[in-house]
Every structure is written in structure tokens, then in C-alpha cells.
Amino acid sequence: MLVRSIATYGRLIKFSHTVFALPFALSALLLAHRESPIGWMTLVWIVLAMAGARSAAMGFNRLVDYEIDRKNPRTASRPLTSGEIDKRSVMLLILVSSVAFVICAAFLGKLCLTLSLPVLGVLFFYSYTKRFTSLCHLVLGFGIGLAPLGAWIAATGAIDLRILLLSGALMTYVAGFDILYACQDVDFDRNLDLFSIPSRWGIPAALKASTLLHVMTAGFLLLTYFAFDLGAIYLIALFIIMALLALEHYLVRPGHLDHINMAFFHVNSIISVLLLAAVWMDLWVRSG
Asked: What residues contact 137, with CB distance under 8 A and at least 6 apart?
């Protein structure tokens, strides 16, 4: 019963999707560790803080979008809309996760604590954006893109403009594949007057916008290479990441939207993990 409940809540908050943002945050930690070594407890508090923020944001999104998700055949089977979890339980999850995030932020320093509530505000705000702007994808990217910056601040207690490059990479990366994902709901979104780039401008234009964002992702990652004086291992990984992004856009193109889930879950997961592995190996080899 306990295992089943954990699995159900995991599906509610799409726990498997943490593989997209968490490696970027951990990459930021590795870069910060090179500047100023961090302890294990700092790492633990950062990971717990990220888990709390993400759980609160996803729970809030599911609650706010309940009526929308219930009408969409693609999302009607989610735990909340299918009745596996009730609204009261989701509200409790949001509250507990939010409090946990703020507490973890407090253990990471005064600046983190000060920024914790504004961060939650940004994450919660995203859930309403599809009701009034087709730029909702960029708002999602911005919210998730705060992860590397937050990890850096938690580790160092200060803001370094260089880490904004990694945050920019994550922002454009997430926004780009969220546009691809939204292509599945074009007709549904138009019928309910919901906003997205695919529903507002059409799928061909949306795919071009996604491509542009992912070109920017590659650019930010290249600038990160120069800003942090990384080495050959990172550069080789970057070329592989660029090839994977190109593959993603080859898989998802007009008339071939049936490959969206493959691109979304498989290719994106490889990209994030590859980035983390490249940063770790690059720093490890050069420190040895």
C-alpha cells in the first residue's frame, strides 16, 4: 500500500521529470565546488530544497488545471483527475512541500531564505499563464531555469553572473521542448481558448521557435565552456548534446508528431545526464 501511494504521488508530480533540471543544478554545484568546496550537508539541503520546490509547483499546477486536465483525453488519467488522489491531499502536499522548501532554504543561508518565497511565487504563477499568454513556455523555462542559479547561491552565498549562462541554457532548453510537447494539444487548446505557441501560431511556426530556443541552449552551453574555463571533455559532450538536439528536431517535425514522447523523455534525459557527467569528468580530470 505504501509503495503504491508513493508511486501514485510520483506520477502526480511527474517525479521522473526531475532528470531534466536536477543535472543542471548539480552541474552548477560542481562548478561552485571548484570555486569554494562545499560540504555534504549543503548538498543534502540543496537536493531536498529542489525536491520540495518541484513537488509544490507540480502539485499546484495539477490543482489549478484540474478542470482542464479532466476534459483533455491525454491528461484525464492523471492521479488527481482520475480520482486516485483527492484535492485535499494535493493541497496538503503543496503546503508540506512549500514549507519544506522554505526550511531547507533557511538552512542554506539568509539569501536563500529571502529568495525562497519569490521563487515559489514564480513557480506557482506559471500555472495560470496558459490562460492569457502564448509565452507560457518561456515562463516555465524561466522558473525551472532558476535551479542552477539557486544551487550556486546556496553553495556560495553569493551571485556570480557566469552561472546565469547555465540558467539560460536550462531556461531555453525547457521552453524549447515544452513547445514541442504542447504540439500534442493544439486542437484542445484552441477549443478551450488556452494559449500556447502551437495553438496561437500553428505547429510549423512552433517548431521553428523551439529550434531557435535550442540553438540558444547550445550557445549558452558554449559560453559556459569559456566562462568557467572548461576543457576538452566538456566540449566533446557539448557537440554530442548539439547532435541530440538536432535529433530531437528531426524526430518531431510537421507530420511526425507521434515521436514527441520519444524526444521528450528519452533524448532530453540523455542530454541532461550527459551535461552533468561532462562537467564532473572535466573537473575531475583537470584537478588530477
From this structure: 175, 176, 178, 179, 182, 196, 197
The Cα–Cα gap between 59 and 275 comes to 28
H helix and E strand count, the chain: 15, 0
Residue 180's nearest CA partner among 73, 261, 275, 68 is 261
pTM of this prediction? 0.93
Residue found under cell 529571502: 114
pLDDT digits (tens, 9 = 90+) for 82-116: 888 999 999 999 999 999 999 999 999 999 999 99
Residue-range domains of the chain with CATH: 2-287 (1.10.357.140)
**Residues near 168 by beta carbon (within 8 Å), at least 6 away in sequence:** 145, 216, 220
Comparing CA positions, the residue from 120, 21, 13 lying closest to residue 62 is 13
